[in-house]
Fold each of these.
Amino acid sequence: MRRIFVVAAAAVLAFPAVVQAQSSASANLTVSADVIKALTFSATTATLPFNQRAAGTTATISPSAGATFTADGQASQAVTVTFSGGSLTGTGPALTFTPNVEGSSNGTSGWGAVTHNGSINLSGAGTYFFRVGGSITIPSNQTAGTYSGTWTLQIAYTGL
Amino acid sequence: MGRGAAAILFIAGVLALAAGDARGQAMSGGHLGVEVHVANGLSVFRERHLSFGSAVAGTGIHAVPVTSPQAGLFRIWGSNNAFVDVTLSPPATLSNGTHTIPYAWAAASHNSADDPATATVRTTTTFQVRQQGAVAGPNNNSWVWVYGSVNLGASPSTLSGGSYTGVFTISVAYP
C-alpha cells in the first residue's frame, strides 16, 4: 500500500509544470475604429457682390470671379455636395439666385462643374477647392431696392 | 501534453484502487476510496476582433452592441461544469499613434450557448463563469463578448484620421 502511494505521488510530481500550464490561459483581440477626419471649410462665409443692376437684365458672376471655399478632410474620400437656399428678398418680390459652382482637387487646374447632390473626391492631401458664381434674373418690373439672401454649399462624406 | 498529464493521473488512481483490493484479500476490513478529478486543459480563443468601423471625427459616441457582428468574441474551453475565473483587461483608449479616443468597454458572457442576445452582462473586469457546454467533451465552452463605445468628441474636431487601435486581453484560470 505504501509503495503504491509512493508511485502515485511520483507520477504527479513528475509533471507539475504540465498540470499548472493547463489551469490558466489568456488571449487578446484588437479593438479598432477607423476615424475619418472631420470635414471643414477654410472660410465659411463669402459675399457675391452683384452690386447695382438694372431691372430686365440677368446679372452674372462667373465662378472664376466669384467666391472661393477650400474644403479639408480625409484624403481621397468621396464627398457629396448639396446646395440650399438662394432666394433673395427685399423691397419687392423675391429674386432667385442660380448658382454656378466649379471644383478642383488642386485649386489650379482641372476645374469642373459641381452640381447639387453631385459627388467629388478629395485630393490625396484631403483638400478640394470650390469657386462659386451664379446669376440673378431681374424682371423688368422688379421693384427697385436691395435684395439679399443666403445660399449654402454643404459637403458630407458619402456613405457615412 | 495535457492529455499526457491526465493519463498519468488516471493511472495513479487505478493503482491506488488496486492496492485496496489486494489488501482486502490479505487482511480483514479496511477500504480506501481514491478519487481523482482530472480537469481538461483550459484554453481561451479569440473568435473575433471588435470593430467600430468607420466614423467621422467630432460625431460623438459610436457604440457597438453585444449582438452586433462587429462585437469582439472570446471562447473559453475547459472542463464541463468547471468554474473559471475570468479577468478582462480592456484598453482605456484607442490610439493612432498621434491621437487617442476614449473607449468605454462592455462585456457579456454565456456559459452554454453562443448567443449574445441571452448573455449575462458583466460590469466588472473580474467574474466567474461555469462551463456548461450542451454536450460533454468538445463543447465545454463559455463565450465572452466585448463591445462598448468610442467617443469621437464634439465638432469641430482636431482628431486626425486613421486607424485607432487598442488591445483587449482576457485571462482565464481555474480557481
Note: Chain B touches chain A through 67 residues (CB under 8 Å).
Amino acid sequence: MTIMQTSTIRRDDSLVLSVTGRLDAVTAPELERDFPAAAARRLILDLSGLEYISSAGLRIILALVKGQKASGGSLSVCGLSGLVGEVFAVSGFDSFLPIYPDVEAALAASA
Amino acid sequence: VRPAFPVTLTLPTDLGYLSLLNAFLRDLALRAGFAESEAMKIQLGAEETFANIIEHDFSPGAIEPISVSWEIGPLGATLRFRHKGQPFDPELFPQLDKEELETQLTVKGLGTFLMKKLMNEVQYNNLGHAGQELVLIKYLDQPREVVSESEPSEDSREAPVQKVSYDVRPLKPEEGVEVARLAYLAYSYSYPYEHIYFPDRVKKLNADGQLRSYVAVTEGQEIIAHSAIVYDASWPGVAELGVAFTKATHRGLGCLNALFDALIVHAGKAGDHGLLVTGVTTHPFSQKTALKYGLKECALMLSKTPSISFQNIDDRQVQRENLMLFFRFMEARGRVEVFVPPHHRTMIGRLYQELGEELRCMELPEPILADEPSQLDVTTNPGSLYAEIKVKQAGRRVVDEVHLALRQLCINRFETIFLKLDLASPSTALLCAAYEKLGFFFAGILPQRDGHDLLVLQYLNNQRPDYEAISVASDLGRDLLAYVRSQDASQAVR
C-alpha cells in the first residue's frame, strides 16, 4: 500500500507542496510535523498524486489553512481527483478553499 | 471466492495497525467484486471507525482488542467492529456544521460524517455485556444511499479532577449514556443490572418510574456519580437503593452518601414502605453503606449472580456472587403475626427484632392445606442463571409440585433456585421441613407491604459455595452467615 510522500518546489513567492499516496490517521501527523504553518506566504497544495484522504488528512489541511491565515498568507489546492475530490466535495472543503485543476492554474491565480 | 462465514481480524487499539486493517479490507473488497474506488471508500469508513473507537471509547494508551469482521452477502459487504470500550449514545454525537467549518475553520464530527456519506448504512448496536458494535454496510453495484445519523463526539479526554463541589439532582433523560459509562468504568460489563448499559433503557425506565436515578454533578456539568432506586414489581412498595457508581477520580467526596440521602427523601415522598440494599459479599463496602443508613441484614442469597468484576478493587472473585440483602421499614409496623417454622423461630425472631419488629408466632389452625390445587409462580433469570418459585397457594400436593418445578429448573441448568413462602400462610410453618428435605435451605426473610412477608429458602444446583470467602460487615451478618451455612447440607459432607 502506497505511503505518503511529499516534495516542495518554490515558484516565485509561492511554495508548491506536492503530497502523494495516502493521507490518513497515521501519515497526516507526519505532514503536520514536516510542514509547520507559514512556510511560505502563498502555499499551493498539489494533491494530484494523492490517492486517499480521510478526516485526519482534512484536519491537517484545515490546520495549514489556519496557519496561513494567521500569518497573512494564503493556501490553495489543486489536482483533486477520484476519492480525494469526492471527499473534498462531500465535506464542504471545496466551498471555502480555492481549488484549481493544476499547479499552473493555481500559480496563475496567485500571481 | 465469497466465504459463507465472516472473515475476522482482531487488532489492538493502536493506530499503527491501520495499514494492516486497510490491506485486509482492500483485499477482501477486491475479491468480493468491488471496484478499486469503492474499496477505498470502504477503507475510509473503516479508518474513521477504527480511529474513533481508539480515540473516544478507550483510555489513552489502553491496548485492548477490536474485532473487525467482514461478511459478504448477495447485496454487499457487512463490516462489524466489536469492542468493549465505554458505552456511548449515538444520539448525542455532534453533527458536522459546514457553516461553522467555512466561517470559523473549526470542525466536529467530520470522521463519522464521511463514514456515513461514503458507506451505504451505518448502525450502532449496544450489545450489553458483550460491549459495543458498529456496523458498516456497502452495497455491490448499487446506487449509494446515505443514512443520516448523528456524529461522534470529538471532545477532549476527561482529565483527573481533585476536590470539587457538586450538586445532587435527578438524572436528565439525555444523560443516560453518562450513567452507562459510569457503570462501565466501575464494573466493566459485569454489573448484574444490565439495563444500566443501555442509555435508552435508562431513559425509559426513569420515565416509567421503574428506576429513579439521581446524579452528582460538578459546576462544570460533569456527572461524577450515580445512584438510583430500583422498583421491582414483584416486591411492591420497596425502594431498592443501589446502581451506585462514582468516577475513580472523584471518590472520597461523599457523593454516594449525598445521593443516598436524596434517594431516601424521594422514597419517603413516594410513600414507599421499605428500603432495600443488596450488598455484594466479595467485599464489605456496600454492606457498610447499608448499615450506615440503618438497614439490617434480612437474607443471604447464595450464588445469585455471575461473578462481578470490580475495576480498581482487587477482589480476585471466581465463584458466583453471594448477595446480602438489607432492609429498613420507612414506617415501623411494630408487631408482626406470622406462621414461623418452629426450627427457624430463633433466627427469624432475631431478624425481625433487628428490623424493629416484635414477632408473634401464630398457632397452626386445622385444616391448613387447601383442597384446591396449588398455585406456584415460577420466574427465571436466564442472564444470571437463577430462578424463583413462589408458593402463592399451597394445596395438598404442593411439596410434590415444588419438587417437580425444582427438577425442571435444575434440568434447565439454573444455578440457584429460590423458594419464596408466605409467612402469613400456615402451610409455610407446616411444610418448611418437607421443602428442606428436597434440598432447600434457609436464606432469610423479605418483609412485604401487605403483611404477607416471605420466608426465602434456596437450592444450589450442584454447587458448593466457599463460605470462607463471604465478607460480612456486622455481628448480625456473621450470625446469619453462620446460620445459613449450618443449614446447607453440602457443608455437612465437606
Note: The two ends of chain A are 37 Å apart (CA to CA).
